[in-house]
Amino acid sequence: LMDALDGNSVVVVDLKWPNFQGFPRFLPLLETTGHRIELFLPYEPGTKKLPLLRDASDPLVAMEIAEGIIPVDQRATAMTYYKDQERAILATLIRLEATIGAGSMGRLVRLLKQGPKAVKEFVDELGDQRAKEEMGFFYELTPNQQTGLVAGLVGKLQPFDDPRLERATSRGLPHEEIDVAEVARTPTFLYIGIPQDQLMEGVGQVFLQMVVRYINRTLLREARHHGGRCPVPVIIYMDEWANLGYLPGMDVMLATVRERRIAYILTLQNLNQGIKDYGEAEFKAIVNNLNHWVLFPQAVSLDDRKYIAEFLGETTAYEKTVAHGWKGVVPIFDPRLQVAEKEVARLLLSPVEMNSFGEGEALVLGPRLYPLRTWLPRLDEPTIGGYRNPLYAYGKHLQKLRESPDEVIAAVERHLLPQEEGSEGVPHVPEVRFRDWVKAVVDGEYPVRLFRDPKTLALTKVHVDREALPEPLATPAFLHEWRRNGWARFEKNDKAIAITLKGLEVLSAEEKLRLEKLGLAWRMAEWAKENQRVIAGLGEEVTTPMAYFEKAALVVPEMALKDIFGEELPRVRELLQPQRTRRKGVESVKLPAVVEYLWDSKVPQPEEDKSAGDGKGKGKERSKGSSSGGSPVDWLFE
Predict the structure, then answer these.
(1) For 364-411, what is each residue's pLDDT tens digit?
(2) pTM for this structure?
(3) Quick one: which H or E segment has residue 150?
(4) 326, 339 in Cβ contact below 8 A?
(5) How far apart are CA 395 and CA 393, in angstroms?
(6) pLDDT tens, 404-414?
(7) Is the separation of the CB atoms in 490 and 497 below 8 Å?
């Protein structure tokens, strides 16, 4: 808050999104200070883009990105040779994608998943002589070695095999991208919000490391364009720094960015978190490059207190010794008193003395600054230690925002989607966000259940199965807003998200139709799964089949339709248009069936034997509108 009030740019990396009681509370306040507001929420629909490969057509930048993903070993190990090979391949592919592609890491993952042959064909078709020279060693490896290297790269780039992340980190139109360089020129609040569950140990941290390095690289380049210093000071807050994982070259970076008017604020709960990621030697190098420390001794562990005491060093103290004696036999006649003083060394602040620190009392260390013991109040505390809090007025306002998250949500939505020229505000942003979420559910083909009016068969409610949804779709960040508008709410002991009648009214006719088709598809898929043993063409041979899966269609007796769909049968006839046919003298209907059941355990036929509509293979090719991978409702998107 103080940095923003002083006119500095602030960048916050927050792993607690979508917690609206944290950093997002500052948005309504910072809107009044004249700051540019930029939000990067990569797992949310509608976020602006942060093109991580924008400058990677430069071989040096491409190698820097590759080194961030596969760090250079400071000490050679048995794996160093293989890591060097992986890094060289990755740097070349990154440079090529940044030069001729959309700057998409997701595209690289899909290429690598196709295997070594596809990688070599990709390089050969481009005709880039430099790339061929850089990849020359790869061609000389054995097939097993090539497969191992490619598989290792797929594992390291796994986070980008996510359409949300690919969309948020690829290049886009100018108004779709966050201009990080502008952060160094204009006071800006850049908030990067990422759910903690998306940063599983090691894998998801690669993405966050790339974000931090991209921001740092862009700011340093902007500083070079302005005589070596950013026109506006930039403060980068890295909350729970250890959760970001290992950032190569952190000690060198901290030593150099300070002169560019770029500051890093690192927070740790304990020092062992840093030692775990960086090792003791490198972590000490990082710590020694920090300009100021703010310590709360009362809240740290005993091990950390010992380290702090050792770091503070010793001070000089006078030690007085007193000796009593006498001369003669009787002490009272000739007493003697001997007092001696000498200088001794003692700890400036011992671990036991740290117990005297109260809550909110801190120890501040810095260059040319004697260790300072002071009070640091919370924003919402009017006084502490007998001193008035100068920021209490702001803290009081922020406390009100904590109790009314709707205002914070509205502020977030105002800055997520770029406003069209000439538009007066963005009054329909909540509706757009809600429709984007429904579209993600339908595109992902996640299980839904339909509820209807028994008389008119009109949809009254739709349940979306939360247990089948990935985060953050399972816990939408703006559910508070939708619930307040009456569009959606949790039901079934929070196991389902209910789209209410008012929520259905927000959707277009086409969106409601797709949602209804999805519900009918899951009703049929569930019936087929329960009755798999009597459906021919799904697995083992069935002696007395009741239904048939053939030519990308499910043939069922006409009388069974009522059992499958019940009261929804009229809508099935209207939307799915089943064709009448006969099987073994039984009147039947042919429905556009699932292309590939999730529970289908058949061994697929060779690729050349498959043809469109062939029931022995996977049937029709999946349409472009559907998501990748097999699903029980592929046929909806043909």
Answers:
(1) 888 777 888 888 888 788 888 778 888 888 878 777 777 777 777 777
(2) 0.62
(3) helix 143-156
(4) no
(5) 5
(6) 777 777 777 77
(7) yes
| Contacts for 201 with CB less than 8 Å, ≥ 6 apart | 245
Token pair recorded at residue 104: 């998409």
Region 563-575: what's the mean pLDDT?
A: 75
Distance CA 25, CA 44 (A): 18
Structure confidence at residue 277 (pLDDT): 78
What is the chain's mean pLDDT, rounded?
Answer: 78
Task: State the distance between the two ends of the chain, measured CA to CA, in whole angstroms.
Answer: 52
Query: How many domains are there within the chain?
Result: 5
Checking phi first, is residue 3 left (phi over 0); if not, alpha (psi -120 to 50) or beta? alpha
Please check whether residues 267 and 330 belong to one and the same domain: no
d(CA 372, CA 370): 6
**Top-confidence range, 328-337, 440-449, 496-505, 531-540:** 496-505
Rounded Cα distance between 4 and 503, Å, is 38
Rounded Cα distance between 223 and 184, Å, is 8
> Per DSSP, what are the bridge partners of residue 14?
193
The partner residues of 38 in beta bridges, in order of sequence, read 190
The residue range of the domain holding 329 is: 314-347
Q: Is 420 within a domain? A: no
Residue 107 lies in a domain: yes
Residue 143, in any domain of the structure? yes
- On whether the CB atoms of residues 373 and 361 are closer than 8 A, the answer is yes
The residue whose two tokens read 């991580």 is 52
